[in-house]
Structure formats: structure tokens, C-alpha cells
Queue: 3 jobs
Job 1
Amino acid sequence: MLLQKQQIEDAVRSNPAIKEFMDAEGTEPEITADVIDLVKTFQQILERARSRPMLHVDEERSRLGR
């Protein structure tokens, strides 16, 4: 079991920039998020998607332009 754990840890690729987010003891801080935080974030993503400019292309005009 310990060998499998080590193999998994060796196979996981870590981000070198994560050191910026580690505390003084060298451990990664825990990220806490509840369902409300996730829903709010998802709503913000949907709002940004709605506010993106849309580009409508007329199929007939694009054929005539060739």
C-alpha cells in the first residue's frame, strides 16, 4: 500500500509556483469553499458568458463573398 501511495505521489505533477502559496512550515494551506461559494462563482461565470459579444454571420452573405 505504501508503494502504491509513493507511485501515485510520484506520478502527480505539481505546479512549481505553488511555493508562493505555502505557509512558513512548507505546507499547503487548505482551501475552504462551501456550496454557496460554488454557486456564487458559477453565477459569475454565467454572467460573464452572457455579457460576451456575439458575432452573427449571415450564411448567404458569406457564400456570396467568395
Note: The mean pLDDT is 76.
Job 2
Amino acid sequence: MSKITVTLYGREYAVNCDPGEEVRLKQLVEFVEGKMQEVASRIGNTTEPRLLMLTCLSLADQLFDVHQNARNSLIQEEDLLVAAVDHLRERVANIASQVGRA
């Protein structure tokens, strides 16, 4: 385990991570810090625990939207594949009927 110190909203935290994951963890911290700053600018002066809670809810909302969009995209892709297979089935049946008449 690697241990690094990260800073969120001016407060330092010691965090463990797997070796080699330090850069990824720092990227995540930068992302969360940005979201905290964004939330803080919208709601104004608040306590740190409330800011953390609101930031978590904001991130969860974004994650939920991403999952929903991915699910919808998967359904659309599946519908397109089914339509393509049906179209190919009709073409094969048409070609087979023409070969049978020849």
C-alpha cells in the first residue's frame, strides 16, 4: 500500500492506495475538489460536512445520469441490431425464393 496526502477544500487527508495508483488518486481528488468549489460557489457559505454531503449528492446525480444514458444507449444499440438481423433475414429469404425459382 502507498500512502499519500491529498488536500480537499483546504484540509489534508492521508489516503492509502495501491502502488501505481497515486496519479489516478490525485486526478480523482482534483475532480472532487473542482466539484466542491462548484457547489460552494452555488450555495455560498456553509459548513464543511454540509458541503461534502452536497458535493456527494451532486456527484451521485451525475453518475446516475451517466448510468441511465449508458443503459438507454445499450437499449438503442440492441434495437438497431435486432432490426438489422430482421432485415438480413428478409433479404436471405428473398434471395432464397429467387434461387428456388431459377
Note: The radius of gyration is 26 Å.
Job 3
Amino acid sequence: MKPVVQLETSGCGIASAAAITGVSYPKMKSVANGLGIFAEDQKLWSNTSYVRRLLKHFGFRTGSREVPFRSWEALPPFALLSIKWHREKGTPCWHWVVFVREKGNSYVLDPKRKLKTHRRTDFGRMKPKWYIPVHQKT
């Protein structure tokens, strides 16, 4: 799976959905806009429904709830993770990333533009709060 870099400050959800589906950021942004989802909307940082709708549009299923993070080993092979979880004016906010376990390797695709590498294995530095399992198309 290839990382996709977010082009807007609040575009991490759009970029994570793009990485999962294998489309470019501009393509995913266009689809998102058609569904009434906009990168400029800071609710992308605090509401899971937007990313779930994008993935559903491309035929992916997500778990019905957010699962508290326990350990990297306990994660499913494919998941959306909330990292950098915090509150802004009382509203929960986070940064979306994608966890992948394949062929005996685990990594996180982080769409943050300023990173030198978007495929991360520095698990000790990331502090996930919860995750949403993602089920690939069959």
C-alpha cells in the first residue's frame, strides 16, 4: 500500500481514505466534495462518519464502532488509527493514519505533509487512542 500526502491542514482523513482505496488525493478530494465532505471542515478531525462514508463509497467496510487501542500486536491487519488525540474547545480531535499488517511486516501510513517518510515504523512515538477496523473489498 502506498502513502498519500494530505494537501490541506485538515485533509488527513481524505488522504487516509485515498491511501486505503488506492486513489490520488485530488481524486479522493473530488469524490469527498461530491458527497458534501470538504477538507476545510475541521469536523474531519472530530467525526468518524466522513471517512466511513468515503470508504463505503469505494466498497470498503469499517467496524461499527471505535475500538480502544490496547497494543500494536492486537490491531487487525488493516485499520484507521486516531493519533495525536486531544481536545480543542471541548471537542475531541485527532490525526488520521492507516495501520497495515502484511507479509509479516507492520507499518503506519501517515499523510502529514511535513514528514520525511510517510511509511512509519516508529510505533513508540505514536500514541493511538482508538482504531476502526477496515475490511478490504472482497
Note: Residues 12-21 form the longest helix (10 residues).
